[in-house]
Design brief:
Layout: H1 30-53, H2 59-81, H3 86-107, E1 109-113, E2 119-121
Antiparallel strand pairs: 1-2
Helix pairs in contact: 1-2, 1-3, 2-3
Amino acid sequence: MRSVRQAKPAVGQGPPTTVVEAPRFRLVSPGTATVLGVLVLVLAVATLTLMGLDHQLTNGVWAGVAIVLAYAGVGIVVARRQPGNPIGWLMLIFTVLYLLGSGAVITRCSAIPSVTGGCRWVR
């Protein structure tokens, strides 16, 4: 009986080779997390601007803004430092969808144009 050290590879088999693939664009990258973070900031500013135009800025709004930005901030940190961790991506995507939804509720226009020719602000 031969020991493992004396074993020879089968015919046609050589030492394992490493296959090097060309780098591909990864959707899950720190750059994508940064882009989503910037999108969150833009949407937050746009939503606050629209709320100000509609005279809906009250004291309770600022607490919600702080919560949304904190949630997005944690999502950015987790997604940038650990791109394979889905929690950070879920936090970022949830924040973007939340801001899109809240902005859509604020800015919906009625089908009847106002006197000035634009859309009326409705709640």
